[in-house]
Amino acid sequence: MQAEGGYWVIVPAAGVGRRMGADKPKQYLPLAGSTVLQQTLQRLLQLPQLRGLVLVVSPFDTLWRDIPAVNNPLVRVVSGGAERCDSVLNGLYELESELQPLDWVMVHDAARPCVTIADIGNLVDELQEHLAGGILGVPVSDTIKRLNDNYGIEETVDRQVLWQAQTPQMFRFGVLLKALRLALQAEAVITDEASAVELAGYVPLMVEGRRDNIKITRPEDLPMAELILQQLAAEESGA
């Protein structure tokens, strides 16, 4: 894993996770003896060449203060905005005085604690000569149907060209800053950082990752994530 000058990671964690139906945002729910956010941060803090990590939280959030990983000297905490793109932009603004346009910045979901160091290393290696950046993802394996407004099936979509986007998503600082600003000005619907970069005219690279890099969005995802973390611990220990 080589990235000249290292890289920063931005972790947007200002969402409320309504689909979990919990009494707190999903990043603070219990997972494997700690919390979802703690698991995510402690994994990211193991990355070689990490220059620092910007955690973006809601301005009304106080729960982040109880996360042990936040005390790491590499971690900064800033306030987020109304949407994910606003929060990521706030993270970029925190770094604006320190980074050059070609420096690398990753964005990783707070609720994606099962990413592997190896997959992130592969992403870094694959993007070294890329002018814009790229993302982790996996090819779609299920049959995909396109529906009409009444939930009737109209078409079976060719899945050969379809991939499921994951994070981290890693881009040149200048590219991502420009893309998010343009997307907000255009009032475009931005579901991830890559969609903003695409709208700005760039072609991000897709780098294949692992299918167990799941995002916790529903209650049934928590026990699945715990099993995956157990398996990753066994793999990493050589068991």
Protein described:
With 239 residues, the chain is of the alpha/beta class. It has one domain (7-137, 164-237): Spore Coat Polysaccharide Biosynthesis Protein SpsA, Chain A (Alpha-Beta Complex). The chain contains six helices and eleven strands. The strands form three sheets. It has a seven-stranded mixed beta sheet, with helices on both faces. Strands 2-3 form a two-stranded antiparallel sheet. Helix 4 packs across helix 5.
Please give the structural blueprint.
Elements: E1 7-13, E2 30-31, E3 34-35, H1 36-44, E4 50-57, E5 75-79, H2 84-95, E6 104-107, H3 117-126, E7 133-139, E8 144-147, E9 153-157, E10 163-172, H4 173-185, H5 193-199, E11 205-208, H6 221-237
Helix pairs in contact: 2-4, 4-5
Counting DSSP E segments of at least 2 residues, the number of strands comes to 11
Structural class: alpha/beta
Largest sheet: 7 strands, mixed
Q: Into which percentage range does the β-strand content fall? A: 15-25%
Binned, the helix content reads: 25-40%
Q: What is the typical, i.e. mean, pLDDT? A: 93
Detail the poorly predicted runs: none
CATH H level: which superfamily?
Answer: Spore Coat Polysaccharide Biosynthesis Protein SpsA, Chain A
Distance between the first and last residues' Cα: 24 Å
Q: What's the multimeric state?
A: single chain
Number of domains: 1
CATH architect. name:
Alpha-Beta Complex
Nearest-angstrom radius of gyration? 18 Å
CATH class: Alpha Beta
Shape: globular
Secondary-structure element order, N to C:
EEEHEEHEHEEEEHHEH
| Strand order, largest beta sheet | 5-4-1-6-10-7-11
Structure annotation, total helices: 6
